[in-house]
Each structure stands twice: as C-alpha cells, then as structure tokens.
Amino acid sequence: MAKHALSIPEAELKQLTATAAELATTYWSSLSTLPTFPSTSGPQTFELFTRPWDEAPRGSDVLQDFSVIAQHGRPSVGGFFGYVAGSGEPVGAIGDLLAGALNQNVTAWRSAPSAVVVERTVVKWLAEAIGCEGFNGSLCGGGSAANLMGLGMAREAKLPANEEGVIGGVVYASEEVHMSIAKAVALLGLGRKNLRLIPTDDQFRMRPDLLQEAIAADRRVGLKPIAVVASAGTVATGAIDPLEEIAAVARREDLWLHVDGAYGAAAALAVPERLKGLALADSLSLDAHKFLYQPIDCGCLLFRDAHFARKAFSNSGDYVQVFSQDSMEAFAFFDESMELSRRFRALKLWMSFQYHGRQAFREAILRDLAHAQTLATAIGKEPDLELLTPVTLSAVCFRHRSKNNQAILTRVIKRGRVFISNATIDGHFALRACFVNHLTTEADVEAIISEVIEAAGEVDS
Ligand SMILES: Cc1ncc(COP(=O)(O)O)c(C=O)c1O
C-alpha cells in the first residue's frame, strides 16, 4: 500500500478489522448478562471520555477504548422497555460497518449507482410491507427528520414558500402527537402558534369531529389550513388515530395528510387490520430503528407523489447538475430529500431483511405485541397496580395505586433488571413499558411486575 499521511499497513488493517469484529461479537454475547443501565455517572464519564486530541498517534490501542465505552453505555438488552427504543439487530450493524467501508455518497445514481438502486428497492419493500404500494421515498436519520421533510412537502404543496418565504399556514395534530411535529412546524417557519392540538377520545385518538370544527374556525377568521398530522402509534400510548376518517376530512378540506408512523407504521407488516388507512397519506414517516429492530439511524419518509418532494427539495445548482437521459441514471435523492451527502443506510436494511426473511420480522413484531398484552393482563391481576390506557400496539401505561410513581421509576431503573420510562396520562405521571425489542423474553416481561412491586416496597408513599 502506498504511504500517505493516513496510511495503514495492510496486515495491521486486517488485524484492526478482525479485532473490531471480535469486540462486536463479544459484546453481543455479553448482552444477556448486562444490567439495563450501566453503573456510571456524569462526572465519571466526563473523566473517562473528555480528553485532548493528541498530535501523536495511539494506533490500534484506540480499539481498546471500545470496551470502556461499552461498559459506560446503555446496552440494548432484552429488559429495556424505555421510550421507543429498538434493539439493534446484529446483521443490520454488520451492514452499517460495510456501508462505512464502501463510503458511498447515496445522493445520486452517478455518485453511487448500486447503493441508490438498493435504497430505492428497500424503500419500495417498506412501502409495500405496510400496504403503501406505489409510494416512493428515502431513508433518513429518524422519525424527526422524516416528519420535518413530510411537513416541508406539505407546506410547499399547499402554501409554496421556498421563493417568497412563509406566510401563515395552520397544521393540525392530536394532543398526543410527538414533539417532533411541533419542532418541524417551528423550523418550517409556520410558527408553533399555528399548530392546533386536537383533543382525543377516551382511547387517546384524535377526534375527527373536533378536527373538522377547528379547521372551520380557522377558515372563518381567514387563516389557511394546510396539513393534518395523524399518528399511527402515538409515542405515549401507541394509539392509532382514525386514519380513514381523518383522511376523509383532509380530502374534503384539501389538506395534506402526513402520517407520523415512526413508531407504529411498521406494525402493519404483522397487523395490517389495525393500521387501515396508511395508504391514504400523502406522506408518512416510519422508523426501521424502532419496530424493525435496526441499529439507530434508520428512519424513512414515504410519499405518494414524488413531484411534491421535488417541489420542496429540488434546488440543484450547477455544482450537482444531472446530465443523463436514462431515468434511473438521472435519479437524484438530493432532489427529493433535505440531505445532499447521504450515507448508505439502506445496506443494513437490505442485509438484515434478506438474511432473516420477511416472516421473521412479522413474528418479532407479533411477539412484541403479545408481550404488551401479557403485561397488561398481569397488571390487571395485581391489586396495587392499575392499567391506565388501552393497549393498541406495544406501549403499556400503568401506575401504582398508592405509592409515588416517579420514585418507583427511579428505583426500578437503579435496580437494573428492567428499564421502563414514563408518560403523562390525563395530566398524571404514569409508568410506561414499550416493547420494540427482539431480545425480550417472557421472563423479562414478568420481571416488570416484580421489579415495580419490589421498588414500591422500597419507596415512601
Ligand atoms: C410517534 C413518534 N414520532 C416521531 C418520533 C421521533 O423519532 P426519532 O427519535 O427517530 O427522531 C418518535 C420517537 O420515539 C415517535 O415515537
């Protein structure tokens, strides 16, 4: 190998790669023995990982840092039920490593011919798996980025602002909508005051009648409604808004329909009847790093009509002009997404999906849904515990009837057997377990109840 400033002797590169593979497999084998949260602290991590970037090289010693970083990281173990945290399937991680090795810039066919076609194929698989045949789209960092792009398309479709700047525009979503929607509305210059939060029914789903009323009220005072965001799996309770009824309102009112399916849309692979109406969306977000178990950094925006993606995002200067006449060769993701340089996220999906096959993912999702039902049933049998919401997908919200639930949560996390998080239900603090984890066992689910009861015994009321 030619010598240059960053050159690595070939034998050493082989050794580095082998060591990295060994570190990863050793880590994966150790997962079942790890607590759900590491024993670490802010000062300790600061002490360990805040260091100067030296002039002199450390060479392969640097790989040894992995073990310390892993030791002070939060492991994706089977007993982790906080937030909506996918479990990081290893074949996907191998795909990520190989994607880094290829270093493709998946921005246009001519910069990454195979990778662009792989991504377009994977996006089609995702769309088809959830009943949205014919949709196109692109991969992105996560649900927040996909929601931002979806609402960017909505704004450009209904109230074009790329040239003149933003003038008004009202967006509607339920009170249970994820915070990324308020963030997107703010970033798009629509103003958070123009996000209407529509009340929900007793199952935490948006009320279409109140949506209709809110739109009418805004029109009466001269405002311009542009988009509705329906949630396909709210972050707190997993509620699925009545997609077909909301789509009917959006169609009648000529509004863009964006579905935030970051958490729940992928469940349509296993339980399509619960998510009827996804295909009525104009745009839809889906996180493969949640219910499809991929390593983090795997969101997807799907859209019905690529014309609106180009309207929102195409702004090619001379620098990136496309000359080919062939429709595949002329294709550019930079015309349909907010990123220019783009990593090869699709390789992990390609490898993971092909390695395991489709049925395995369906089964993993069904297993998570079953875990949620098992937990809900177990809560029902515990006199001290109360189930607070219906279990539509895999999020379970509950509370201890007499003890301080926030104190219980802190104790449960400290004990390290299971990790749960919290939600606010009807204004009250709730305990919450969410199953999007292919490593979870029946014993992990049972441990939620015993850990909460034991933690309750350790806290004052
Ligand atoms: C319903 C919903 N939408 C959007 C997001 C944001 O996704 P990400 O964390 O991938 O940006 C989440 C994350 O949990 C979510 O549950």
UniProtKB/TrEMBL annotation:
A GO molecular-function annotation: pyridoxal phosphate binding
Alphabetical keyword list: Decarboxylase, Lyase, Pyridoxal phosphate, Transferase
Superkingdom of origin organism: Eukaryota
InterPro entries named among the record's database cross-references: Aromatic_deC (IPR010977), PyrdxlP-dep_de-COase (IPR002129), PyrdxlP-dep_Trfase (IPR015424), PyrdxlP-dep_Trfase_major (IPR015421), PyrdxlP-dep_Trfase_small (IPR015422), Pyridoxal-P_BS (IPR021115)
Gene Ontology biological-process entries: amino acid metabolic process; carboxylic acid metabolic process
Cofactor: pyridoxal 5'-phosphate
Record family assignment: Belongs to the group II decarboxylase family.
Name the record gives this protein: Pyridoxal phosphate-dependent transferase
Organism encoding this protein: Penicillium daleae
